[in-house]
Structures are given as structure tokens and as C-alpha cells.
């Protein structure tokens, strides 16, 4: 049977602790009960057999001495009378019948004359259950014990006593003892299991509280355990709960600091962007002001007027493009739409100040002919983050290669630089599963955290590795909406 | 039990002085009685009542002597070791020249009784011939009703008990004969008719397991006898007077009721002629 097809309750490892402990108690009690029951019954059987042996021995001893003189005289009546009187004296033995035969096996007298007539032979069906080698043979199936005692005088066999004893009462006693033991042990087991269940439930109550808080915390609602629910400070759970509350406090503080850091980073990035934009706008503005000056002085000339107008148009167009790219990148747009080539090409405009400042070479390649639907704003933000990091990591005059390609319902964005390469902790961070925990400076900072969070959310993957001889390569694989189900979130880190 | 004592009456023997009169250390004459059966305690209690009655009405000390068989009692009586004995008609007839009647019990108004041949309750036999091949229980080889009557009946048929029956044995007690037949140990038995009737009254659950196959004619009831040479002794005289007056005494009547007897009579020796005839038949058959 396939174990994975079995219901959950069939796997004890999946049971809650509150069920496991009572189940263990039950199993333990069953084992103990079985051992005790077996021991008690064995002892009882041993005792009963010993008593039966002693009693039957006494019965046969008494009969032997009483019967011997009558048997020697072949006195039928006295033999019978002895058997009758003995049956009344040994009532504790539950004698079914007793028969005395002579040396040849012929019946002299029996306590059941109708069944064993005088001068007859003992029937085969009786002899089958009568002991042959020993004085006492117990046939439990029939609830009978057979007795036999050879009688001899001066070394000569003069007869044999055969008897059958009902031991049904002994069997009944065993059954009663067994029933009592089973009932008692079952009751004890149930009571102990119930006590164990109640105790475990009570003991685990704080754990359930903690588990509930942690479950809520996993959904983002990290809350401290209220003071009313806190156990005593010196108890095990009391210390645990307080440590948990300390942890929650630390996480909340970290979240708060993280938020502030993110704001600062954002402001810093905004400042950098504003600076770059100012630079981009300032450059054409200088030319445009010169052109305006030329127009003022030589505007009557047709040639000057046309050239100035063209230059002004070029300058304004450049300013418009820069402003539009900034708007597209930083507006709070979470909507899905089809990615256009210009959505990525615009990013080069935002990079231009950094590229120019560091005298970098930018190789730009965008191939998004295949339509793909995704959160374009996040794609642009993530790509821009990686590109800005690449610019920051690259030495002056280095080359940064950017390529984007849409195929098979997914977008692959690759950024390569010629910097010193990603540090180990950043690679570890990018390689770690999930990895959406808070950023740290040593793990690449807020930018990479935001990139990884987005990629994880959309079910994409990050492939990051160092390049030989130098530099790094980061490849984002982002599935389109239609491909999301077929493209499970995977994180490939080279 | 009292009943046990009653139905074992034949085995109960009380004897009168015979030999030289024995006396107690206080000089009181002693009457010696012999009792053979195994008594239960309350039987002994009844015997104590009987002994007390006899002692009170004879003015002598009474001693009970127990033996198992009639033969032993008869021997003690013949050897004058007993003052008197309640014996069976058979030994009285066999030794009539050495024994004298002291008193004979009256049952149903006369000193007579019958011998019964009994079988198991479900048996349909009505003659002794139908009992051939049985395991047969006799009471005592010196009992008239428990042996001689059946022996004589077989002698008339020219048969002997040991070859007519497959197996015979003696129980040394009439009640034992009834028990043997009732239990199936014996298929038939020879028993004192008086005892069987008393059992029917007192232990019907035992007697109902048997039925009467055949009855003998009326024969002399087992008498109380003494040695012939002691018949004039004061002990025997006192004993005879006490027994014959028993029915008229309140204490004696109570004992007689328990024995299911009417009293004691001074019956003539001819009362036992029927038994003598049976003995003759047996002896003649050889």
C-alpha cells in the first residue's frame, strides 16, 4: 500500500503531541498489562496445578489405603462404599467419577456403576484421557483432569484407581481473573490516557499560544504576547515567552529602522537621480540659452533662426525624455501590462549621468519582440537597481553590458560588470532559498533586497556569479503572468 | 440419621448377659449389647436413648458391642460373650438348639415380615427367573431375607446363586442393598421387606429408584435371642420384661415409633418354621 496515499491519521509521526503522549501511554500500558496478565495467569495456572496435584494426590492416597484391604478381598460393596464416602469428603475436587479395576483391568466398582458396570473393561474413550504414565493428566480442552494410581501389595499389583476430575471451575477462575485483569487494565489505561491527554493539553497550552503568535507573525502581523497570557517569569514557558517578546520587539525595531533606512536610501537615490537629471537638463540648457542668445542677436537671419530652432527642439526633446523616464520609473504603478522595448531603453537615459561621470562604456541590447505581461514598474526598478550597482562597482572606463530578452513567456535580464566581483556574503544571500529577510549592508543593501523580494514574489529566479577574470554577472529570470504557473519560483545562483 | 439407624436395624445387635454375670465396680450387673453398623453421630444419639430406656427399666448397666456381620454377633452370642442379641431368624433357626427367644418385634401387628427381591425402578421383571445373569446384591450370608430366602427360591429351581447370577456380593446391610440397586452397582438385590418399607417412608427418593420384583411369604421377624443356658439369668429376665413392656412405656413407645415397630411379643419358636423350611430346602439341595 502506498503510504503517501494513507490518511494523515495513519501516520503517527504527523499526530499532535497531545495525541502522541496518550497513545504512548496506551501502548505502554498495553505492554505492561500484557506482561502482568501473562505473569499472573502463569502463576495462577501453576498454583492451580500444584493444588490440583496435591489434592488429587491426597485423594488417591486416602483411597489407596482405604481400598487396599477390600480390593484384596474382592469386596465390591466396600470398594463402592469407600468411593462414595470419599466423593463426599473430597468435594473440593469435583470428582466426576472414580473407578477401581483389578489387576487385569476389570471394573471392581465405580462411583458411576451405570457407566462402568461391574466386571466390564474401561471404555476406550475413557482410557484415551486417562493418564498412562503419570498420576495426573490435565486435559484443559475438555476441562477435565484424569487421575490414576496403581495399587499394589507386597510388590504385587492388585488393581488400579482411575478417576476423572472436573476442572471447569479452575478454567472459570482463570477466565474470571483474565477478565478482571483486562477490564482493570483497560480502565486504568483509559484513565491514564485521559490524564495524560489532559496534562499534555494543559502543558502545551502555552506552546499553542506561542505557535498562534508565530503563525500570525509569518503572515506579517508580528505581535507580542500580552501580559495576561504570560506565564510566571521563572517558569520554562515564562522565560520562553519573554524571549519571544524580546525577539518580536527586536524585529519590530529592525523593521522600523529598515523602513527608515529604506526612506533614506530612497531619498539618497532620489537625490542622485535629481542630480543626474539636473545634469542632463543643465547640459542642453546651456546650449539652449546660447541658442536663445544667438536668436536675440541674429534672429533676423533665416539660417540662424532655423539652426537655433532645431537646436532648441533637440534640447527640449532630450529634457522631455529624461523627465519621462524618471516618471516611468518612480511612479507607483503596480499594474500588469505588456513590456515594451522603450520601457527598458529608457533606463539608459537614467544611467547616463553615472556612465558619463565614470566614463563607462555601456553595451545595450534589448530584444522584447515577444509580448510578455508583467509588473513593468517593478521590472524597471529592479533592473535599474542592478545597473546602478554595476555602475558603482565598476572602475573608471570599464564596460557594462546589459541585455534583455523575452522568450518562452519569460524575460531574462542580464547585467555584467568589470568590477571586483560580488562579495561572498552577497552571493550567499542571493543563493539562499527565499531570502527575502531584511537586507544588510554586507548582503548588498536595500537595492538587492528589493530586487530579490520582487523576483521571489513573481516566482522568478536570480542567477548570480563572479566572472572570470573579473566582474560579476546577475541574471534575472522573470516569468510573464501567463507563464507563472508553469515557471515555479527557482533561484539559480552560479 | 435416625432413619439410617432404623433401616440398619438388622445390623444393630443388642445383647443380654449370658456368661457368668458381669458386674460393674459398684456391683451393678451388666447387660452387654453388640452393635455392628457404622453409625453416624445422631444414630448413636438414638442408640443412647434406647440404652437409657433399657438401663432404666432393667436397673442394670447396658453396654453396646458393635460388629460388622451377623456371623460375628452370632459367634459372640453362642460363646456367651453377649447377654442377648437382636439376630436374624436364619441364625436363630440354624442354632435353635443353642439359642432361646427373648422377644420378637411386632411389625404391622404381628411378628412377621417378608423378604423382597428388588430391581432398578425401570425394570419390568416380576419373577426371580427374570433376574438370571444379574449382578445381585445380598445383605449378609447369615441373613434370612437378605440371602436365605433367595437361596431357597433358587434351590427350588435347582440353581445356585453363584451360577444363576453373573456376579453376587454382600453389602452387610439391607439399606446398602437398596443403595447398590439404586446406584446401578447391582441390577437386583435381596432385601428385608420391613427395611425397604421403612426406607420408602423415610427416604422415598432412594427407594423410588428401585421396585419390588417379588415378595416372599410371611416369615418370622428377626428376634432377640440369648444363649439357651442363660435364659433364666436375671439379666435376660429383666431384659425380656423391659422389651415386652416397651409399648406401654412413654419413652419406650417413642423409641418404637422411631423403629416403626408396634412392640415386642413373646412369640413361640414355631414363628420361625418357615425359615427352618427354607434352610432345609437349601441344605437338601446341597
Total strand segments of chain A: 12
State the largest interface.
A-B, 13 and 14 residues
Strand order of the largest sheet of chain A: 2-1-5-4-3
**How are the strands ordered across the major sheet of chain B?**
8-7-9-6-10
Q: What gross morphology of chain B would you assign?
A: globular
* Residues in β-strands, percent of chain A: 15-25%
CATH topology of the largest domain in chain B: D-Maltodextrin-Binding Protein, domain 2
Distance separating the two termini of chain A: 41 Å
Number of strands of chain B: 13
The largest sheet of chain A is: 5 strands, antiparallel
Beta-strand fraction estimate of chain B: 15-25%
Characterize the largest beta sheet of chain B: strand count, sense, and whether it forms a barrel.
5 strands, mixed
How many individual domains of chain B?
Answer: 2
- Low-confidence parts of chain B lasting 5 or more residues at pLDDT below 50? 1-20, 37-42
Report on this structure.
- The complex is a heterodimer of chains A (494) and B (286).
- Chain A is of the alpha+beta class.
- Chain A is built from 10 helices and 12 strands.
- Chain A has a 5-stranded antiparallel β-sheet.
- The radius of gyration of chain A is 51 Å and the shape is rod-shaped.
- Chain A starts with 16 loop residues before the first helix and ends in a 15-residue tail after the last strand.
- Chain B is α/β, with parallel strands linked by helices and 286 residues long.
- Chain B has 2 domains: 9-111 and 221-279, Periplasmic binding protein-like II (D-Maltodextrin-Binding Protein, domain 2); 115-216, D-Maltodextrin-Binding Protein, domain 2, CATH 3.40.190.10.
- Chain B has helices at residues 2-7, 41-58, 70-78, 89-94, 144-156, 161-164, 174-183, 193-202, 204-207, 234-244, 250-259, 273-285, and strands at residues 30-35, 61-66, 85-86, 99-106, 112-113, 115-120, 135-138, 167-170, 188-192, 210-215, 219-220, 224-227, 263-265.
- A 5-stranded mixed β-sheet of chain B has the order 8-7-9-6-10. In chain B, strands 3-12-4-13 form a 4-stranded antiparallel β-sheet, sandwiched between helices. A two-stranded parallel sheet of chain B has the order 1-2.
- In chain B, strand 1 (30-35), helix 2 and strand 2 (61-66) form a beta-alpha-beta unit.
- The longest helix of chain B has 18 residues, at 41-58.
- Chain B is globular.
- The model of chain B is unreliable at 1-20 and 37-42 (pLDDT under 50).
Amino acid at each position: 500500500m502506498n503510504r503517501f496515499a494513507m490518511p494523515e491519521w495513519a501516520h503517527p509521526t504527523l499526530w499532535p503531541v497531545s495525541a502522541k503522549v496518550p497513545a504512548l501511554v496506551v501502548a505502554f500500558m498495553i505492554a505492561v498489562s500484557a506482561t502482568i496478565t501473562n505473569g499472573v495467569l502463569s502463576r495462577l495456572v501453576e498454583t492451580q496445578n500444584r493444588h490440583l496435584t496435591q489434592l488429587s494426590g491426597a485423594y488417591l492416597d486416602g483411597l489407596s489405603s482405604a481400598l487396599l484391604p477390600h480390593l484384596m478381598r474382592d469386596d465390591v460393596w466396600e470398594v463402592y462404599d469407600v468411593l462414595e464416602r470419599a466423593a463426599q469428603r473430597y468435594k473440593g475436587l469435583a470428582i466426576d467419577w472414580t473407578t477401581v479395576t483389578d489387576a487385569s483391568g476389570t471394573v471392581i466398582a465405580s462411583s458411576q456403576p451405570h457407566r462402568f458396570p461391574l466386571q466390564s473393561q474401561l471404555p476406550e474413550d475413557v482410557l484415551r484421557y486417562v493418564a498412562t504414565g503419570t498420576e495426573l493428566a490435565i486435559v484443559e480442552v475438555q476441562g477435565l483432569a484424569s487421575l490414576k494410581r496403581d495399587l499394589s501389595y507386597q510388590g504385587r499389583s492388585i488393581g488400579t484407581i482411575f478417576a476423572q476430575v472436573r476442572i471447569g471451575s479452575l478454567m472459570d477462575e482463570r477466565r474470571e481473573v483474565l477478565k478482571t485483569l483486562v477490564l482493570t487494565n483497560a480502565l486504568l489505561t483509559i484513565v491514564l490516557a485521559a490524564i495524560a491527554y489532559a496534562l499534555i493539553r494543559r502543558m502545551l497550552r502555552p506552546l499553542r499560544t506561542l505557535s498562534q503568535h508565530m503563525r500570525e507573525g509569518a503572515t506579517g502581523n508580528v505581535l507580542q504576547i500580552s501580559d495576561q497570557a504570560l506565564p510566571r517569569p521563572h517558569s520554562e514557558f515564562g522565560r520562553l515567552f519573554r524571549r519571544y517578546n524580546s525577539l518580536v520587539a527586536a524585529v519590530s525595531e529592525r523593521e522600523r529602522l529598515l523602513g527608515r533606512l529604506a526612506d533614506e536610501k530612497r531619498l539618497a537615490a532620489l537625490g542622485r537621480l535629481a542630480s543626474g537629471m539636473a545634469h542632463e537638463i543643465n547640459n542642453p540648457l546651456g546650449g539652449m540659452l546660447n541658442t536663445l542668445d544667438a536668436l536675440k542677436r541674429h534672429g533676423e537671419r533665416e539660417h540662424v533662426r532655423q539652426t537655433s530652432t532645431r537646436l532648441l527642439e533637440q534640447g527640449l526633446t532630450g529634457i522631455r525624455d529624461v523627465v519621462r523616464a524618471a516618471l516611468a520609473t518612480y511612479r507607483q504603478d503596480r499594474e500588469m501590462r505588456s513590456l515594451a522595448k522603450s520601457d527598458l531603453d529608457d533606463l539608459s537615459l537614467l544611467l547616463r549621468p553615472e556612465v558619463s561621470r565614470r566614463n563607462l562604456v555601456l553595451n545595450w541590447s534589448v530584444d522584447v519582440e515577444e509580448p510578455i505581461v508583467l509588473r513593468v514598474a517593478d521590472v524597471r526598478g529592479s533592473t535599474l537597481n542592478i545597473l546602478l550597482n554595476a555602475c558603482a562597482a565598476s572602475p573608471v572606463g570599464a564596460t557594462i553590458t546589459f541585455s534583455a530578452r523575452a522568450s518562452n513567456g519569460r524575460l531574462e535580464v542580464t547585467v555584467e560588470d568589470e568590477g571586483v566581483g560580488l562579495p561572498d556574503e552577497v552571493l550567499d544571500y542571493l543563493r539562499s532559498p527565499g531570502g527575502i529577510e531584511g537586507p544588510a549592508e554586507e548582503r548588498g543593501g536595500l537595492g538587492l533586497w528589493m530586487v530579490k523580494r520582487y523576483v521571489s514574489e513573481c516566482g522568478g529566479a536570480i542567477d548570480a556569479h563572479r566572472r572570470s577574470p573579473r566582474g560579476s554577472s546577475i541574471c534575472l529570470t522573470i516569468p510573464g503572468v501567463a507563464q507563472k504557473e508553469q515557471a515555479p519560483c527557482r533561484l539559480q545562483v552560479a | 440419621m435416625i432413619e439410617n439407624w432404623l433401616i440398619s436395624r438388622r445390623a444393630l445387635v443388642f445383647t443380654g448377659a449370658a456368661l457368668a454375670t458381669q458386674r460393674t465396680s459398684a456391683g451393678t450387673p451388666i447387660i452387654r449389647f453388640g452393635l455392628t453398623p457404622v453409625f453416624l453421630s445422631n444414630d448413636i444419639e438414638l442408640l443412647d436413648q434406647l440404652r437409657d430406656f433399657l438401663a432404666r427399666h432393667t436397673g442394670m448397666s447396658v453396654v453396646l458391642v458393635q460388629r460388622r456381620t451377623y456371623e460375628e454377633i452370632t459367634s459372640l452370642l453362642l460363646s456367651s460373650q453377649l447377654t442377648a442379641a437382636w439376630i436374624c431368624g436364619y441364625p436363630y433357626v440354624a442354632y435353635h438348639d443353642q439359642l432361646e427367644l427373648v422377644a420378637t418385634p411386632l411389625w404391622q401387628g404381628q411378628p412377621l415380615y417378608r423378604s423382597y427381591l428388588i430391581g432398578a425402578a425401570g425394570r419390568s421383571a416380576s419373577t426371580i427367573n427374570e433376574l438370571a445373569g444379574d449382578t445381585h446384591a445380598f445383605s449378609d450370608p447369615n441373613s434370612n431375607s437378605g440371602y436365605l430366602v433367595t437361596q431357597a427360591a433358587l434351590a427350588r429351581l435347582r440353581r445356585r446363586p453363584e451360577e444363576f447370577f453373573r456376579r453376587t456380593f454382600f453389602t452387610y446391610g439391607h439399606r446398602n442393598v437398596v443403595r447398590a440397586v439404586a446406584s446401578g452397582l447391582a441390577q437386583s438385590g435381596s432385601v428385608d421387606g420391613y427395611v425397604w418399607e421403612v426406607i420408602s417412608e423415610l427416604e422415598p427418593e432412594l427407594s423410588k429408584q428401585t421396585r419390588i420384583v417379588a415378595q416372599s411369604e410371611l416369615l418370622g421377624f428377626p428376634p432377640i435371642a440369648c444363649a439357651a443356658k442363660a435364659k433364666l439369668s436375671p439379666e435376660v429376665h429383666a431384659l425380656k420384661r423391659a422389651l415386652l413392656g416397651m409399648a406401654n412405656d412413654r419413652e419406650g413407645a417413642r423409641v418404637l415409633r422411631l423403629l416403626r415397630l408396634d412392640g415386642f411379643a413373646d412369640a413361640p419358636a414355631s414363628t420361625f418354621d418357615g425359615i427352618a423350611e427354607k434352610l432345609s430346602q437349601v441344605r437338601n439341595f446341597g
